[in-house]
Fold this sequence. Notes:
Number of helices of chain A: 8
CATH superfamily of chain A: P-loop containing nucleotide triphosphate hydrolases
CATH class of chain A: Alpha Beta
Number of domains of chain A: 1
Radius of gyration of chain A: 18 Å
Largest interface: B-C, 57 and 50 residues
Number of strands of chain A: 10
Strand order of the largest sheet of chain A: 6-7-8-3-9-10
Oligomer: heterotrimer
Number of helices of chain B: 12
Strand content of chain A: 25-35%
Radius of gyration of chain B: 29 Å
Structural class of chain B: alpha+beta
Largest sheet of chain B: 7 strands, mixed
Order of helices and strands of chain B: HHEEHEEEHEEHEEEHEEHEHHHEEHH
Number of domains of chain B: 2
CATH architecture of chain A: 3-Layer(aba) Sandwich
Helix content of chain B: 40-55%
Shape of chain A: globular
Amino acid sequence: MNAGRNLAAAAPLIRIRALSRAYRRGTQTIPVLQGVDLDVQRAEFIALMGPSGSGKSTLLNLIAGIDKPDGGRIEIAGVDIAQLGEGELADWRAAHVGFIFQFYNLLPVLSAAENVELPLLLAPLTRRERHEHVASALAMVRLTDRADHYPNELSGGQQQRVAIARALVTDPQLIVADEPTGDLDRVTGAEILALLGDLHRRLGKTIVMVTHDPKAAACAERLVHLEKGVLVDGPAAGGH
Amino acid sequence: MRAVPLSYVARNLRVRRVTAALTALGMALVVYVFATVLMMSEGIRVTLVATGQPDNVVVLRKGAGAEINSVISREQAAIVASLPGIATDALGRRLASSEPVALNNLPKRGSGKPSNVTVRGTSEIGLELRPQVRLTSGRMFRVGTSEIVAGRSIAEGFAGVGLGETLRFAGREWTVVGVLDGGGSGFDSEIWGDAEQMMQAFRRRAFSTIVFRLADESGFERMRALIDADPRLGVEAKPEIRFYAEQSEALATFISILGTVLSVIFSIGAIVGAMITMFAAVAQRVAEIGTLRAIGFRRGAVLVAFLAEALLLSLAGGVVGLAAASLMQVVSVSTTNFQTFSELAFRFTMTPSIAAQTLAFALLMGLAGGFIPAWRAARLSIVDCLRQA
Amino acid sequence: MLLLRLLLKNCLRHRLRSLLTLVGLVVAISAFGLLRTLVDAWYAGVEASASTRLVTRNAISLTFTLPLSYAERIRGVAGVSGLSWANWFGGVYITERNFFPQFAVDPESYLALYPEYGLADDQKQAFLRDRQGAIVGRKLADKFGWKVGDQIPLRGTIYPGTWTFPLRGIYDGAEPSTDEQQMFFHWKYLRESARKRAGPGSSDTVGVFIVGIDDASEAAAISQRIDALFRNSLAETLTETEKAFQLSFVSMSEAILVAIEAVSLIIIVIIMAVMANTMAMTARERLAEYATLRVLGFTPAFVSRLLIAESLLIAIAGGLAGVAATFPLAALVGRATGTLFAVFQVSHLTVGLQLLAALVIGGVASAWPAWRISRLDIVSGLRQVA
């Protein structure tokens, strides 16, 4: 029993092997990822860095299950998501991933609380339970008093906090963030990063973040550099 | 004032292909209805105008209005036929034809639904009076027999009226020995036979109408004065062209009023469509508008550019609709003229004037739909535009 | 609940666009309803006809008459329970525009065959007593402001001269479909006057015989019996049910009716194009949002349904408003066309078809954009941000 648990804990949450992805533009094929191998441990916070066009966003999208690889495996908690069908993948995302976008991607017609509630509609929960989850997620990002505000009534930082609440309201193991501070000023960006660090430390969330900002990358435990579609060894980040 | 180049306008439409196509489609359909209705009224008018000859005169009983309501006794017919001023033919015969006209209820080919067909008793003189009528197949009926000839649309559209077929009405069998081409006139929708035979069969003692040719085309007024002055007659004379024009008035008016009202109502739908498209075009290109203005184009130029886009869109719809409508020219329609209560065949007729009216109508829709959005685009302040960029 | 709110709010997002689309829908749906009502009005005479009445006319066409002497022989046919006759008068009241049908009838037997023309007893007696008298339908009397006792002058087209009839009664239709725009007067008066004018030689002729029967299922057999009676006589007859008789008038204008029906479908297609445009624009603008929903785990089908539901919601709103607008419009048109149509009423079927049309418009308009967004690639959808 005990050994089994240890073994499970030791196995990486994300196991990527020989991952490749190419885009076709007309007759031309442009390789974006070429045989990427990567392990991400449970409760690890890693930052993907690299120049634009290096394939870091593509890698993130593949990990989040919103894009399909041309070759290779992406095992997440033992499931090769590259093999899942469209519908299964959608269910998988609803249950296992929280996504944070550069431009927040909140629905403008819904209030902060409603935006956070949205992914819960896919879970078998009662209305009461949903509202409890929404309240605690909003409390975690310290936006309880803004629950009834609409996105256009919130600042950029506040909108991103709503988006973070939306990402964690379903309590996923994995949170992926694509340039979460890219559209924010330095101070607000720092707040968002602190919040992510908090989620990682206090809730033990596994976080994969794409960024080109060294300050942001510094919050992560590990840095992974991509260049022209392949991983290059970078210096270990000094988060701790 | 510098204008925004037209190529910019046209390119914008091309970029938003689906939206532009759907909007133009809506307009094309409205234009199609509009043009078709005009073509229908015109077709009826052309048909009945072609039926009349400029120097022919039709005589009916006073107040009868239509040939089938009219009764003219043999005595009256003799008086009219002997009036001075009636033309004579090469053989010296007076060109006046007294004719019985009856409606005969016949089943249509295919559907079997009955409709009234005009049956006219006439003579050699009657044929001479209508030079537009030609025999296309078979031969003319012989005097004193139960032979008939059928107008082209009747021969095609009604059961038992084809060449060589026999038709039973008024207690007799009638043989169709020929098919007439009335040259697009109302005679295409009639059956002709020998006047005396028809009167016997229909048990009529009186004619319905007298048609005669004036020796002198300008002599109509004098002739009418003569007819009106004779107390024995109680008939009225009309130039044939005017008589047939009046026959079609109610049907043509009904169609054009119904059609115009419908077109106007329908155009609201298309105008709304154009407005939606143009508002979206403005909203999508706020930054571009700002840029154009910042470069130095004036408000007026922006207004014109967006109006031009709407007009181009409506012109495209107009041309498509007009093209579809002009295809209708091959279609021949047959319906009951409710003034004469008899079948009338006609074609959709396109004229340059209809084409011009139709395109003007299309452009008007574009203008109505495009003006408010274009106005709004022109009213935007440069700073607001660029801030949204 | 949340989804419903999302739906409603999405509808209201571009108020102007939704409003314009709604206006288009209301125009289209009410125009569709009006055109259908127009076609129905054409068929009103058919609807109002009874299955226990036959009409016997001259086989050549209606413009030919039948001798009155046929009456006794028709009465003797097995299955015939009542008989009356009528002549089309074709008079003009002041101008041709005021068209309404006038019939010279044998009053007592005619009213017996048409119990749906409700006439007060005293008016009925007055009408029967006065050989010059006439009765008219309520709508006709209202239209021209006639009261009992008024003199109604008609200019004859078939029967020359000016005829004046004192109005003795106004009948009310028992059914909404009963024609209240007709005029009836004594056939005997027409015959006597015509004799005076045309001389004593003219014989007694009638336009049509109305034959009452008890058993509607016997209609075909009785018709055949009547026609057999006069085969090869001077005036052969054609007997058909009142419904077929009325239908033969309608079918004469069939080309026009077909055109009107075609046009009523065109307006639906027009608004379909307009609405498809609206939905395509909406879908395009919201690509990023739909992609976000997909990222959250919503399926492609769900996202498509969201768009279809929005389209249907707008279409139904427009459809309901269009139906609501149809009734006052139909009343207006009915008044404007005056005596042209006996009945101008929006039927339940029309309302049903209007709502169905709205649903079809909403469904078809959103089909293509919905299909597009269901095939949307999430990554490229997200790229549409800002």
